[in-house]
Amino acid sequence: MSLSVLRGPARGYLIQAALLVALVATGMWLWSNAEANMAARGLRFGFGFLDRSAGIPIGESLIPYTPADTYRQALTVGLLNTLRVAIIGCLLATILGVALGLARLSANPLLRALTGGYIEVIRNTPLVLQLVFWHAVMLQMPSVRQALNPLPGVFLSQRGLKIPALMADPALYAFLAALAAGAIGWWLLLRRERARQAETGERRATILPGLLMLLGFPALSMAAGFVPQVQWPELAGFNFEGGLALSPEFFALLLGLVVYTAAFVAEIVRSGIQSVHRGQWEAARALGLPGGRIMRLVILPQALRVIIPPMTSQFLNLTKNSSLAVVIGYPDLVSVANTSINQTGQAIEVITIFMTIYLALSLATSALMNWYNARVALRER
Amino acid sequence: MKWSMLAAAAAAFMSLGVSEALAGRDLDQIKQRNTLRCGVQGPSNPGFGVPDSQGRWSGFNVEVCRAIAITIFGDPNRVEFVPVTTQSRFPALSSGEVDVLSNNTTWTLTRDTNVNRFNQPAITFYDGQAIMVPRRLNVTSARQLNGATVCVQPGTTTELNLADFFRANNLRFTPVVIADLDELRRAYDSGRCDVFTNDFAALAAQRTLLARPADHVILPERLSKEPLAVTIRQGDEELTNIVAWTTFALIDAEELGITSANVEQIAASSTNPVVRRLLGVEGNMGESLGAARPDYARQIIRTFGNYGEMFERHLGTNTPLGLERGMNNIWTRGGLLYAPPAR
């Protein structure tokens, strides 16, 4: 009798409902336990500590920060440091990974073997070990008083890389505007030439006029008197003063993440390219396209459909792996959060904050990549 | 260290049956488990706590924990040592991963009260924050350090004092914070930092591990007071008493001239009632304290000696650390060690 309920669509709803109840009950049990335990230890749940003065010094920051600032500000500094290394890391890992992936398919056996060796070694050793290795390499750089000086105003030492900085003044803005105008000009030229090629079939080189615009406009702006002021780094007392600094911790972390992730990206690119049918190569060659353009116009657009989804995971991995920064002392979100937990005792709150942030970062990355994937996906007509 | 944080949060979420605050709760758990879990500075802190190739720990802080184990169990070996970093130690203690911290933790108001709700029953070592620089920099005072890069451990009073000191003196500095003390020392040794700051004793310990210890000098200034104390969770009066009076027994023994060499002879022959009570020959001190044996103090002194013997064995002038007794001497000899009477 009642067994009939357990068939058909009703059964599905029943299972769903049971699962939901179990989920909510587990959540409530976890929360009541945490609450009871916190009460037993006299801890109060709350985010009031965010407005208290943190007192902790942080080595590098994209926004103004002093130890007198609040925990909110300190955690923001950590978040921005995480974002900085994650975004630059994803870009570089993609570039290096694609290059390695192509090299792995090269006709040159030496290049193929070298890339293969790189990928196998890097993919099969722990990332933490690699980070410690890169950090040790950075510390082997010459001391700050014997800094390498490869270019005027560029200093490489154990304290990282020091480069001249441009002062933020109207001249700089004019310079940047001219640079942007040059880039837009080049892009418009490319568009016009492409339309022209579609119409007439004639191809004309755009490099020279393009470069002329990109470099000419800023040169004109400088000739008009808008010369950006440069701040040169100088050795004063213990360290270089002035200029822009990139710390060895940042370098070591970036290098470690890029080298590690690129090995995975290379394999994804290789498999993606190999997934494109041989007939496509043959057809493209029959049309008389040169090798580089076969790859760019025929193979890669089809390979991307296979490449994009696993690439998303690599970007997510790189972002989350950046939390290993604590090992080498780069002040990322987790590092600042750990110290905040230590100084405030608000473990659950701070962990909730950084888990939420990582979740948001991951979901945003996924959404972006899904959007891109939908753009390159095969359109069935 | 990230994992122990998450473990702490997970433990806070999931641990069962500890919702009621009974007196003696922590001590009951320790006795039930039959081992004391003692958090020590990891990976190692020369003089205070160092593991050998077999994973057996030795050092001043280690012996303090073993002495507490003698009071609780009558057995110095019923201790499990858990290495913690300066960042992971408090979550480890709050979550119950360790029962006591014996890792050079400074006694402060916030740690004692609203923030962590800890208890720091007795000071085992009086220290102060110091600054180490390479000799070739020719620095003689911390006030000359404007613009310096400073190696410091995160999550410490040292880190906060450093920021305060530079703020107060209107100086700028760049911190390099690494939780792993070995990694931090390597960064300083390679020249990544101009300055290495820590409590004086810990700094002296780290100096012994540098490539050329003699090339580095610890400046005479002290940036702070750092009373280092054994740390436990709040809410267990019996454990508080045991930690406090174990420490006091070590200090009282030195004051009374009792050493590991003469403790048995003194116990057998002394007519001094103060000595007889401490060594459990008369009175019921052990019982009032809840110790495993009435002669717990005698057993501790027989095993490890008095405070001075422990100090000289691990930290004193005949060790690589080469520390003077200084503040850590008995009050009758101009130091700060002054234990309440055992009576």
From TrEMBL, chain A:
Highest taxon of the source? Bacteria
Instruction: Mention one GO molecular function.
Output: transmembrane transporter activity
Q: Where in the cell is it found?
A: Cell inner membrane; Cell membrane
Keyword Secreted part of the UniProt annotation? no
| Keyword match Transport | yes
Q: Which InterPro entries match?
A: AA_ABC_transptr_permease_3TM (IPR010065), ArtM/GltK/GlnP/TcyL/YhdX-like (IPR043429), MetI-like (IPR000515), MetI-like_sf (IPR035906)
Which Pfam family, any one of them, does this sequence belong to?
A: BPD_transp_1
CDD domains, from UniProt?
Answer: TM_PBP2
Q: Per UniProt, what is the membrane topology?
A: Multi-pass membrane protein
Which sequence ranges are marked TM in the entry? 12-31, 85-105, 171-190, 211-230, 250-269, 350-372
Name all ABC transmembrane type-1 domain ranges: 79-369
Which biological process annotations from GO are given for this protein? amino acid transport
Q: Which GO terms describe its cellular component?
A: ATP-binding cassette (ABC) transporter complex
- Which keywords accompany this UniProt record? Amino-acid transport, Cell membrane, Membrane, Transmembrane, Transmembrane helix, Transport
The family note in this entry says: Belongs to the binding-protein-dependent transport system permease family. HisMQ subfamily.
Record-given protein name: ABC transporter permease subunit
* Species: Falsiroseomonas algicola
UniProtKB/TrEMBL annotation, chain B:
Q: Which CDD domains match?
A: PBP2_BztA
Where would one find the signal peptide in this protein?
Answer: 1-23
Q: Extract the InterPro entries matched here.
A: Bact_solute-bind_prot3, Solute-binding_3/MltF_N
This protein's UniProt keywords:
Signal, Transport
Q: Which SUPFAM superfamilies match?
A: Periplasmic binding protein-like II
- Ranges of residues in domain Solute-binding protein family 3/N-terminal: 35-266
UniProt key word Signal: yes
Q: Which GO terms describe its biological process?
A: amino acid transport
Which family does the UniProt entry place this protein in? Answer: Belongs to the bacterial solute-binding protein 3 family.
What is the protein name given in its UniProt record?
Amino acid ABC transporter substrate-binding protein
Per the UniProt entry, what species is this protein from, by scientific name? Falsiroseomonas algicola
